[in-house]
Here is the input.
Amino acid sequence: MAIEIKEYVGHEFVTVNQNTTDLKNLSESNVQTYIDDDSLMVEIESIHSRITRNNTYYSPECLKQSVPYWTNPYERPVIMHHNERDGQIIGRIKAVEYKESGTRSGTPALIFTANVGDEEGKKGIKNGTLSTVSIGVIAHDLRCSICGTNLAEEGMCEHEKGEVYDNKLCYWIINKMEPKEVSYVIVPSDIYAHNIRVYDAVKKTKSEVKEKVEYNPFTELAESIKNTLSTDLEEGKDTQEGKQVDEEVKDGEKTTEPVEPETKEPETEQPESKDNEGESKEDNQSEEEKDSEDNKSEEEEASKEEVEDSKEDEESKKVLKEKDAKIRF
Here is the structure.
């Protein structure tokens, strides 16, 4: 006997008759389908090791042991609202990782890498309407936190999940589970179950996918991006325009000094000889003497003109006086 659990708020748990599925040879049972380059890759923190709003708790050991079962003997589907009967599959889980720290909740968690090819599914994931998820599992070892009864094998105990007994909350501890599916839901019971990364897929055929559970078919994409970025950074450092840098290491510290470009000294004119200097001085003196003589001649002419003008004025005055005397007589 086992108990079916779906981690969305309001789910009523159902008891089912199902035995534990054991995988004897994981490498042979792992069958991964191809990935189309028109599809979408989604990384999801699907379930965390903390008490959910459904008062369930998945132990770290339970999460760790369930890792290979999410892709074996077939890749578990990604569906909508846990509709298993007539619902539509929008994708498949391609890889699963158990992560102890560095998660959204700060507690151990399962990280799914899912491939989504459905058009409506891709649209909802890209615009953010499909972002919260809930796992659907069958619990084979599920115990009461108050009395420790294995409810999957022994049936229900006297304690009610969600009630408080002697100041202790009653919740169910899942120690062993078998995966069924993961669904996008409106209100998940694990508040941290959410998409964490979305990116375009890289096309792979069925023969190109390695038959190993621990193999992640998307590591090549991450490595190529990493190599490209590192190459671009190195090229950017080497192509600095107009600057050449010499590196010197002094006392363990790295210092850089710019290298001065080689420049030619400007050609300077040779000073003239003393003879030339003397000649130039004599020429200057002769020019100055000529200028002074010209100025003197101009001044003498101006003074002569003034004298002549004054004589003419005196003569004109005499003429006027003579005329004035004649008129009187």
